[in-house]
Design a protein that fits this description.
Blueprint lengths: L4 H6 L8 H10 L6 E5 L2 H4 L7 E18 L10 E19 L1 H15 L6 E9 L2 E9 L13 H10 L1 E2 L2 E2 H14 L5 H12 L4
Antiparallel strand pairs: 1-3, 2-3, 4-5, 6-7
Helix pairs in contact: 6-7
Length: about 210
């Protein structure tokens, strides 16, 4: 479900990070041809992008991690939840979605409303390795200097967030469980996600 445009305009922004300015800057350096988008979290199980093709993909130098505060979708300002982010280091397996060139800008603008209402992520065009060859895909990354970076969280804190935090799209627990299931369905076993799901099961949250 896409956030309403009115909702987006009402959200507080981070100083110096205007979503529209960042969108135009991203469009200005978009690779020619079809648009590729790298999915590593909810974009796998709820892409909302009108794509013509989906490929398994891997990026090097970036890893998927549950280290980003969610103050709207999976939590609130007072009780922030967690969502996955793509952060520097390691590698990440996910999917690459291809959007035909004729629809590329329209779909990117719609995707922006979902992923960048508060301009939290740093959008990057990353080299994705796919079985059919490399593509340059848009990926939403997070910097350690971001106020949305959680830092290291111990298991007690993670469990409390999984148990208690809910935002407009549901709970953090549901988000993590859906991502774990979607990854398994495409043959990806993420050790950290599996550990978190095992932890949730051990404490009877699932």
């Amino acid at each position: 479900m896409r956030p309403d445009i009115a909702d987006i305009h009402d959200l507080p922004q981070f100083p110096g990070r205007d979503p529209q300015d960042m969108l135009e800057a991203t469009l200005a350096v978009r690779p020619a041809g079809d648009l590729w988008v790298f999915g590593y979290g909810s974009l796998i199980w709820n892409p909302e992008v009108a794509h013509a093709e989906m490929r398994p993909a891997r990026v090097w130098g970036w890893r998927r991690t549950l280290r980003m505060w969610s103050r709207i979708n999976r939590g609130t300002e007072h009780e922030p939840g967690l969502v996955f982010a793509l952060m520097a280091g390691g590698s990440c397996c996910g999917i690459a979605l291809r959007v035909p060139q004729a629809r590329a800008e329209r779909e990117l603008r719609l995707l922006w409303k979902r992923e960048m209402p508060r301009a939290v992520y740093d959008p990057r065009w990353l080299r994705c390795h796919t079985p059919q060859g490399p593509v340059r895909a848009l990926a939403f990354t997070l910097d350690r200097a971001s106020p949305s970076y959680t830092g290291e969280l111990d298991d007690a804190r993670i469990l409390a967030i999984l148990r208690d935090c809910r935002g407009r799209y549901g709970t953090t627990l549901d988000y993590v469980a859906r991502t774990a299931h979607a990854l398994r369905m495409i043959g990806i076993r993420d050790a950290e996600i599996e550990r978190i799901m095992h932890l949730a099961g051990r404490f009877k949250l699932v």
